[in-house]
Specification:
The protein is of the alpha+beta class. The protein has helices spanning 3-19, 24-28, 56-59, 189-192, 226-230, 303-310, 316-387, and strands spanning 33-39, 42-47, 69-77, 89-96, 99-106, 112-114, 117-123, 128-130, 139-145, 150-156, 162-171, 178-187, 195-199, 204-210, 216-222, 242-247, 251-257, 260-265, 271-276, 283-287, 296-301.
């Protein structure tokens, strides 16, 4: 396949993905997923979203709860090792009313169907417990390394310096969080003030910052490189981690999990964008209610999802078999679509080349006809001169 046809394939792939409604399963790379949204005191969990639909958490006006909740940090705690039956939870630092709290919120699988999707709505203070060991901290960021089971709490030590407290998560039963303090280290202010996110499924910490050009750069660091990276001075945040995505400067309330970035755009029509960091073209755009405020979004997937769905009956091997079936079906669908796109791209390339050749032939004929007309005119002029 020549350069022109390869270029056509790329353009057509992006065109198809941006103009048609991608399914959430395709975007997330799995049909074993649950989407969790936090807005004030409200927590929604949705799954099995129909193609062409949008999460209710983005599009519906959420009724305000009796109490006012403000969150400084929201972190997904996950243990996706195949031997663990521990369910995913949310660790929340903030305030409920006038009271400062540190809550460990347990999640439940949806028990009702709304507009074709499974959904449940709860309040953060319901089915949650306090974490007294962390109550004295005032964090700017909280991260969780699910591989090493290390919790990092970044906070101010005084007006000008920041520290990072590291805790080993010894156990995480449904009604408790047992921690052991490991160490405290200084962290550079430019790294502490970044917006950080934990991704247990990609084993990465994501962060974002505005570049000198005003756009938003999303970068990532592997769990294993985190401490070494943020405790060593660098000239700028551009030297930290790997650049994964660039968003326009008009994006707000950004979240990253499962290799997917969620961001809001406030314009004439408010929109929420869901985009895969692995697939450069695939995205879903949802218009949302003007009174909707999405503070953070989490994606729970695969084994964590199966544990939420099946509870104590969850079986890792059964969950893996389900995932393999989806992967095979997705591969067949993807291969078929890719083949069709290549055929269309090849046809477009052939038609383009045909049009170009036709234009060249027309141009050559025109030039020949023009030359003949010039020769004919010249001969006529000579003949007239002779007769005269």
């Amino acid at each position: 396949m020549n350069f022109l046809s390869r270029l056509s394939v790329v353009l057509l792939l992006c065109f198809v993905d941006s103009s048609s409604a991608a399914s959430f399963s395709e975007l997330f790379g799995t049909d074993q997923y649950a989407l969790i949204g936090v807005s004030g005191c409200n927590v929604t969990l949705e799954t099995k979203l129909p193609q062409g639909s949008c999460p209710s958490h983005f599009t519906d006006e959420i009724e305000p709860s009796k109490e006012r909740c403000v969150w400084k940090s929201l972190t997904l705690l996950s243990d996706s090792s195949n031997s663990s039956l521990t369910l995913p939870q949310i660790l929340a630092f903030g305030s409920v009313g006038e009271k400062r709290v540190v809550l460990l919120k347990s999640l439940d699988y949806p028990d009702r169907i709304v507009d074709g999707k499974k959904m449940t709505t709860t309040v953060m203070t319901e089915n949650s417990v306090n974490v007294p060991q962390l109550e004295g901290l005032d964090p700017v960021n909280v991260l969780y390394d699910s591989e090493s089971r290390i919790l990092y709490v970044i906070s101010k030590s005084d007006k000008s310096t920041f520290i990072i407290n590291s805790y080993a998560v010894l156990s995480r039963p449904r009604a408790n969080l047992r921690l052991r303090h490991v160490y405290t280290l200084p962290i550079f202010e430019e790294f502490a003030r970044l917006q950080w996110f934990s991704d247990p499924y990609k084993q990465k910490f994501y962060f974002y910052d505005k570049s000198q050009y005003g756009d938003i750069q999303i970068r990532s660091i592997r769990f294993t490189d985190f401490i070494r990276s943020v405790t060593v001075p660098k000239q700028s945040t551009d030297a930290l981690g790997i650049l994964d995505e660039i968003l326009s400067e008009d994006r707000f309330t950004i979240s990253v999990t499962g290799g997917v970035v969620f961001s809001a755009e406030y314009a004439a029509v408010n929109s929420y964008h869901i985009k895969s960091l692995q697939e450069s073209c695939e995205s879903i755009k949802c218009d949302f209610h003007e009174n909707t405020v999405v503070e953070q979004v989490f994606l729970v997937e695969n084994w964590d999802y199966c544990k939420l769905r099946d509870g104590h009956k969850a079986d890792y091997e059964t969950c893996q078999k389900e995932r393999k079936i989806f992967s095979k079906e997705e591969k067949i669908s993807s291969d078929t679509a890719s083949t069709l796109l290549k055929i269309v791209a090849l046809l477009v390339a052939i038609l383009t080349i045909g049009v170009i050749i036709s234009l060249i032939i027309t141009l050559i004929r025109f030039q020949k006809n023009l030359q003949r007309m010039k020769e004919s005119t010249h001969n006529l002029t000579i003949s007239s001169t002779i007769h005269a």
